[in-house]
Write a structure and sequence with these properties.
It contains 3 helices and 10 strands. With 161 residues, the chain is α+β, with helices and mostly antiparallel strands. It has one domain: 60s Ribosomal Protein L30, Chain: A (2-Layer Sandwich), CATH 3.30.1330.200. Helix 2 packs parallel to helix 3.
Length: 161
């Protein structure tokens, strides 16, 4: 049985050797999985907000899309992963509350999705699987042995990316 790790809010973990990462209760946050299929090394992060204010970056770079994605890339490439082989799968970014979509609070899920896509685009990392937006929470499972991602929700069941 492979070891499983719970990835909490504003956390990131490198996975290998068949390890499994799990993010519970993704609402407006976005779960990001990066994977190098040749080396079978992945990274999983639970991103909370789109961009970091300067002071917060020093405290927790995994909390923000604009600082977490570069750190994921840095750690994976330090292990020999190639960006030319690396792909991403993402989930989350829901609108969890009935609020004015024009407000920063009501729009946070959409803003998180856009920031994650923009940061991945800066590294030319393709998104090959996605379950984002809508109005329901999700749980995300990332299997480092084969790169499979399962997204489960009460309203939509189980989706394999």
């Amino acid at each position: 049985m492979s070891e499983s790790f719970n990835i909490g809010m504003a956390e990131m973990r490198i996975l290998r050797n068949g390890e499994v990462g799990v993010i519970f209760a993704l609402g407006s946050c976005v779960g990001v999985c990066l994977y190098d299929p040749l080396l079978k090394i992945g990274a999983i992060a639970h991103i909370v907000l789109p961009e970091s204010p300067d002071l917060a970056y020093e405290q927790n770079k995994y909390k923000f899309a604009d600082t977490c994605i570069p750190e994921m890339v840095k750690q994976m490439t330090s292990l020999g992963c190639s960006l030319k082989r690396t792909w991403a799968k993402i989930a989350g970014g829901a609108q969890m509350f009935n609020s004015n979509l024009g407000s920063a609070f009501g729009d946070i899920g959409r803003r998180n999705i856009e920031a994650v896509k923009s940061a991945l685009g800066e590294y030319n990392i393709p998104i090959i699987g996605e379950d984002t937006g809508q109005k329901h929470g999700r749980t995300m499972y990332f299997y480092s042995g084969n790169g499979e991602v399962q997204v489960k929700s009460f309203s939509k069941g189980c989706l394999t990316l």
